[in-house]
């Protein structure tokens, strides 16, 4: 049989107009669900981003002995840069170390007066690609001849942080999945109520000789449209809210590494809309099927 | 055209609606199916439409055994039977013309064909002027004409009406019966289930009488009651 898309689209549009209240209910339900889902996604993305950012800041500091030569420093540095676990090595000279202290104590310059510049030690700050690897890197540095007191690496903190990060991220993912399931039920229920109100119509259509697919198609298109509208509204609100949050956080919470790069805006937009559309289609498909057995 | 072979239909465990019914209807016949309320008329109609399955026995329509029709082919089967009901069963959100057109859209016909055919059929049933009205703007008799137009627009070989005049006053009923009679004269096999005594008596058609699910009488030019 010919698939008459024009007819089905006209039917779906007309049904939505005639059952405006039901359509608004389905759209609103979808919008609310997608909104909560989107907020959940954002929260987990930002929490992940912040935790990663904190983890990234963790570095090993290796101090050079007083009597170290320029050549020795360069050689050590190249060596350490070659370690696979290492992302970046930053050399901090004695002068730089002194400047940093000065900066830190700029409010109380009197403390600086008695300070002997010679007590500063040159060091390299080793940023790790994987915070877990700090033990292994420290081990290598010891093998290079760095003594234990010249190494500064917060191993305890790192492994604890990683454990907490893992728990938080998994909890957030589990909550997202649970909510997704709840949304599917909620939205398909809204669709089912709207279809239940029209079960007599479906019965008549089938008596006139309409196939299941013929009856179902306008309903599925309707579900698709409702899902699309609801999800798009919600997704735009989510993305807009995210932009505002990131901007606010960077000025109000400068110490928390909230970053706009933690959230892939386009991806979030597409995922949320896809979820809404999918739930709309599946929900209406399943709901009509129950009334097609005439 | 329609054959019931020893058909029994039991609802639930022990509610016998049809009890070993044998009935043959030839192409082009006009047949009244009469009997008191609850005698099993609607059950026969629903069996023919394959809305129900018989508990025992077999039914053939148009030479096809219904038990052999798979679920997905039921819509095609239904399109070969025009159907008219006591409560009209029109789609409330569609105009008279749209209701008739729906039966054509279901079979995948071209929009151009639909635009030509629908007004013709509505004229035929005397509703040319009412084409754009919705069912709730039409009288009962007019709604029934729309439903007959819808049943007939695909020119099915068989037309079945279950109590078509059940909700209508006697004058309106005559018009509906005349319409069905005209459709029969074009060559359509027509089966009318009714307990409208007067109507059956004046039409002098074949009458099959049911009583408690059994065929108790089958007369060629019969009346509703025994003595005619
Ligand atoms: N869906 C059903 N479930 C159970 N019993 C039914 C059902 N439909 C009809 N019956 C019973 O079957 C018998 C025949 O009903 P029906 O075919 O509707 O008679 P008629 O159309 O002649 O009034 C009645 O006793 C009725 O109560
Ligand atoms: Mg009945």
Automatic annotation (TrEMBL), chain A:
Protein localization: Cell membrane
Gene3D superfamilies referenced in this protein's UniProt entry, alphabetically: 3.30.70.3040
Keyword Membrane on entry: yes
GO-annotated cellular components: plasma membrane
InterPro entries, A to Z: ABC3_permease_C, FtsX, FtsX_ECD
UniProt KW keywords: Cell cycle, Cell division, Cell membrane, Membrane, Transmembrane, Transmembrane helix
Signal peptide region: none
Domain FtsX extracellular: 58-142
Domain of life: Bacteria
PANTHER family: CELL DIVISION PROTEIN FTSX
Family the entry assigns: Belongs to the ABC-4 integral membrane protein family. FtsX subfamily.
Protein name: Cell division protein FtsX
Source lineage: Bacteria, Bacillati, Actinomycetota, Rubrobacteria, Rubrobacterales
TrEMBL record, chain B:
Record flagged with keyword ATP-binding: yes
Membrane topology per record: Peripheral membrane protein
Keywords tagged on the record: ATP-binding, Cell cycle, Cell division, Cell membrane, Membrane, Nucleotide-binding
Gene Ontology cellular component terms for the protein in this record: plasma membrane
Entry keyword annotation includes Ligase: no
Residue ranges of every copy of the ABC transporter domain listed in the record: 2-228
SMART domains: AAA
Membrane-spanning intervals of the chain: none
InterPro entries in the record: AAA+_ATPase, ABC_transporter-like_ATP-bd, ABC_transporter-like_CS, ABC_transpr_LolD-like, Cell_div_FtsE, P-loop_NTPase
Source organism superkingdom: Bacteria
Pfam entry (one): ABC_tran
A GO BP entry: cell division
Compartment list: Cell membrane
Main location: membrane
GO molecular function: ATP binding; ATP hydrolysis activity; transmembrane transporter activity
Family membership noted in the UniProt record: Belongs to the ABC transporter superfamily.
Function: Part of the ABC transporter FtsEX involved in cellular division. Has ATPase activity.
Record note on quaternary structure: Homodimer. Forms a membrane-associated complex with FtsX.
Name of this chain's protein: Cell division ATP-binding protein FtsE
Species for this entry: Rubrobacter marinus
């Amino acid at each position: 049989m010919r698939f008459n898309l024009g007819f089905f689209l006209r039917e779906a549009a007309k049904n939505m107009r005639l059952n405006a209240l039901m359509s608004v209910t389905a759209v609103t339900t979808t919008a609310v669900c997608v909104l909560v889902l989107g907020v959940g996604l954002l929260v987990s993305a930002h929490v992940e981003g912040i935790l990663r950012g904190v983890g990234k800041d963790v570095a090993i500091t290796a101090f050079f002995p007083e009597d170290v030569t320029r050549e020795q420093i360069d050689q050590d540095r190249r060596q350490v840069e070659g370690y696979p676990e290492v992302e970046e090595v930053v050399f901090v000279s004695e002068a730089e170390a002194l400047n940093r202290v000065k900066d830190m104590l700029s409010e109380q310059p009197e403390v600086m007066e008695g300070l002997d510049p010679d007590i500063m030690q040159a060091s390299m700050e080793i940023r790790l690609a994987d915070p877990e690897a700090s033990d292994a890197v420290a081990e290598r540095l010891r093998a290079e001849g760095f003594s234990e007191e010249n190494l500064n690496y917060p191993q305890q903190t790192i492994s604890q942080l990683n454990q907490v990060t893992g728990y938080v991220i998994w909890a957030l993912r589990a909550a997202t999945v649970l909510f997704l399931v709840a949304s599917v039920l909620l939205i398909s229920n809204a669709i089912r109520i709207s279809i239940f109100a029209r079960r007599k119509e479906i019965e008549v259509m089938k008596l006139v000789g309409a196939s299941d697919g013929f009856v179902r198609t306008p309903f599925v298109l309707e579900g698709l449209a409702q899902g699309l509208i609801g999800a798009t509204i919600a997704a735009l609100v989510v993305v807009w809210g995210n932009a505002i949050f990131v901007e606010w956080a960077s000025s109000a919470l400068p110490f928390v590494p909230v970053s706009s790069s933690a959230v892939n805006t386009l991806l979030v937009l597409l995922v949320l809309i896809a979820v809404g559309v999918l739930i709309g289609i599946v929900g209406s498909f399943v709901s009509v099927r129950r009334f097609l057995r005439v | 055209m329609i054959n019931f072979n020893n058909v029994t239909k039991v609802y639930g465990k022990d509610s016998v609606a049809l009890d070993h019914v044998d009935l043959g209807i030839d192409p082009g016949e006009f047949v009244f199916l009469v009997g008191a309320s609850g005698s099993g008329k609607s059950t026969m109609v629903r069996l023919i439409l394959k809305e129900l399955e018989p508990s025992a026995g077999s039914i053939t329509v148009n030479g096809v055994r219904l038990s052999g029709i798979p679920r997905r082919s039921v819509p095609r089967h239904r399109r070969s039977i025009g159907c008219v009901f006591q409560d009209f069963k029109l789609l409330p959100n569609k105009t008279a013309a749209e209701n008739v057109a729906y039966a054509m859209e279901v079979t995948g016909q071209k929009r151009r064909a639909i635009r030509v055919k629908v007004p013709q059929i509505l004229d035929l049933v005397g509703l040319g002027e009412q084409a754009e009205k919705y069912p709730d703007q039409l009288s009962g008799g007019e709604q029934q004409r729309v439903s007959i137009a819808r049943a007939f627009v695909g020119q099915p070989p068989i037309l079945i009406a279950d109590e078509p005049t059940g909700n209508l006053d006697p004058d309106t009923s005559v018009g509906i019966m005349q319409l069905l009679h005209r459709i029969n004269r074009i060559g359509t096999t027509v089966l009318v289930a009714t307990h409208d005594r007067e109507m059956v008596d004046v039409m002098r058609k074949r009458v099959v009488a049911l009583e408690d699910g059994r065929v108790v009488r089958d007369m060629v030019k019969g009346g509703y009651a025994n003595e005619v």
